[in-house]
Amino acid sequence: MKALFVLLVAGLSLGGCATIKGWFVSTPEEPPGEPAALATPVPPIEAPEEPKPTPAAPASAPRAVPTPPEPSKARVPVPPRPASITPPPAAPAPAAPRTTPEPSPPPPPVLSPVLSAVDEQKLRMDTQSRIDGVEQRLRQIDPTKLASAQQESLQTVQSFLDKAREALQTQDVQRAFILADKAYLLADELTKR
């Protein structure tokens, strides 16, 4: 059994596989019994001539090395890039007749957390007390005795106070409270100096 296996492996290795034979370049010394029609035509490869050693009496048929497929010599020409084409200048559009601008729409309502009626009333009272406290402090300040930085702070306090009153009129109680609180804190600092 072992001898049969060795004989089979030797036969396959010496004979080669039928599908692999097409991968190899045929050598000039083809056996006379093989017809030329069965051989796969291979284009000649241009390579520098190397001196070939004289083959000794081979024990088996010489093996050829597979050659990679030759790239196509006919290249597809790449069309040249067109020069940047600028479109012809368009005729200026006729001027649209002037119309009076429409009045801008009122600003969208301010999104704020919804307060219960009790909480809103309490916040409104706190805001009004802050506004009253700021006005009281502003009456204590003599603007002529203030330095330039303090005069700027006084203007900021008055601006916050005006904006707080506007916010109260537009029912934006939370914003009014924040502005009144800022005015109160700045006015308090001005009176301490």
What can be said about this structure in brief?
The chain has 193 residues and is mainly α. The protein is 44% helix and 0% strand.
Sequence-ordered SSE layout with sheet pairings:
Blueprint: H1 2-15, H2 18-21, H3 117-140, H4 148-169, H5 173-192
Helix pairs in contact: 3-4, 3-5, 4-5
What is the overall shape?
A: elongated
Largest sheet: none
Contiguous helical run count: 5
- Portion of residues within helices: 40-55%
Radius of gyration: 50 Å
Total beta strand runs: 0
**Quaternary organisation:** single chain
Q: Please tell me the overall pLDDT.
A: 74
Structural class, judged by helices and strands? mainly alpha
* Beta-strand share of residues: under 5%
Q: Can you walk through the features of this model?
A:
By secondary structure, the protein is mainly α. Helix content is 44%, strand content 0%. The mean pLDDT is 74.
Feature tags:
mainly alpha, 5 helices
